[in-house]
Amino acid sequence: MSKVLLVHAKGGPPLGHVLSRAAAKSQLHLLALSALPPSVAESAARLCASVVTPADAQRSDLVSLIASHARAVGADAVLTFSEYAVVAVAEACEELGLAGAGKASALARDKRLMRRTWQERGLPQPEFRPVATEADLRAATGVLPFPLLLKAAWSAGSTAHRIIRSPHEVSAAWQRSHEVMAESAQLGYAELHVAEAQADFVVEQIVTGEAADWFDEPGWGDYVSVEGVVADGTFHPVCLSGRMPTVEPFTERAGITPALLPQDAQDRVVALAREAVDALGLSNCGTHTEIKLGAGGRMWLIETAARFGGAMTVPQIEEVFRLDLVGMLVDQLLGRPVDWPVEARTPAQARGAAGSLVVLAVDGRGDAWPDRRVWDFPTVSAGVPLSQGSELSVVEESSLADGSVVPVYDPAAGANTMAALCLLSAADPRTVLRDFETLVDALPQVLPAALPEGAAI
To answer: Of the residues 81, 98, 115, which one is the last residue of a structural domain?
Structure first.
């Protein structure tokens, strides 16, 4: 039986989903660079032939660690679904002579290299400058038009994003972004392989999206993601995911499968995603390409990742399009034949719709809740009226325990201040969108109020 080494770190699809699908395809071995979520520890022991947690996962020789463990278990394939381990796993696969994302993996991870590559190809994207010091940032603000977005080159989940509207905000933005990257590293949300990655930044022009020019009804965000895969160097689009509007600065609130775009618009979006992925020269990996949608059909590339979309994107695709992306990727890496889509699936081919909502302490306008609340999913499930036939669940491994106080939303920390991740299944994308709007409006009313600090229970 074929053997697969799964390298686990923070981020990506729920680990429980990944384990069950990968174990169905091979003898599975787990190398955990991050602590296993308590809710999946038992299933990991049951599904995996071995589970190893190294004493020091954030070590400079991470590639050697992965490669040596792969040799020890006799792995025929090594993979990860975490943004923070993509480069290390790709380099380990190169060392082992196994199929993987390839030598170009860093181009899909380091936003500076990614943007430079696209610039050389003449692909549409915001104007940008790589910045390594506050002086670099100040110089960039003299040539790029305000407002600007400062982002960490190796971050994910909108972490350490800061909007800069004038030269007076440069120092504060630079300092806060560095603080957030340090805080994220303590939580395990940081690049695991590249030394000093926390010091690398890029600043870029904020382009103006116009969702109304792309969608037939209001409520959609002004960008989409193209989910896909590269198999033996060939890009295969799978489908498009839509969004609700982001929370300032650009924190994602919800992803919806499928995106309800007209066919001609979807075709143009997929064509740009194909150019973006092809430019990076990847070999074998999932892809997740975000594209900003502007007025008059304009588009700008936001970023591409050499892994599948995070949160519940992969389970949503499986539910809606009956595609087991985890199992298919395992087969691909093991050299088995896989029937990858030739063209992206469309809303007309979907069986219902699914979406994931990140619970943040902000209302539909992006304003902070007026008071602190306690996360309690049973209260939400019972107290929020959803559409007939809609089913709401909570992703336990990505959520705080019931009874936990919902964190105050921090724009710089992004998804680090989420309280929970909810999954909604419904009849169609419109219903998912409307139900999410209902949820967002209802949460600060239906969730129990948090007791003041020091108050007796």
So the answer is: 98
Owning domain of residue 215: 209-350
Q: Which of 223, 229, 415 is nearest to 303 (CA)?
A: 223
CATH of the domain at 66: 3.40.50.20
Read off the pLDDT band of 184 (50, 70, 90).
Answer: confident
Let me know if 60 is exposed, middle or buried by CB neighbors in 10 A (0-12, 13-18, 19+).
exposed
Whether 316 and 216 map to the same domain: the answer is yes
d(CA 186, CA 153): 18
Contact 191, 154 (CB under 8 A): yes
Question: 326: how many CB neighbours lie within 10 A of its CB?
Answer: 26
Domain count along the chain = 4
- The string of DSSP codes covering 204-262 is EE-PPP-GGGT-SSTT--SEEEEEEEEETTEEEEEEEEEEPPPBTTTB--EEEES----
Is it the case that residue 188 has pLDDT exceeding 50?
yes
The DSSP code sequence of 423-441 is: EEEESSHHHHHHHHHHHHH
Secondary structure of residue 144 in the 3-state scheme: coil
Task: Return the amino acid letter for 290.
Answer: E
Instruction: Give the integer Cα–Cα distance in Å for 80 and 245.
Output: 29
Encode pLDDT of 301-355 as tens digits: 999 999 999 999 999 999 999 999 999 999 999 999 999 999 999 999 999 999 9
Looking up tokens 């030739």, which residue turns up? 342
Instruction: Enter the pTM of the model.
Output: 0.94
pLDDT averaged over every residue in the chain: 94
Q: Which are the contacts of 261, defined by CB distance < 8 A and separation ≥ 6? A: 214, 215, 224, 240, 242, 269, 347
**pLDDT surpassing 50 at residue 456:** no
The per-residue pLDDT for 372 is 97
Residue 299's DSSP bridge partners are 293
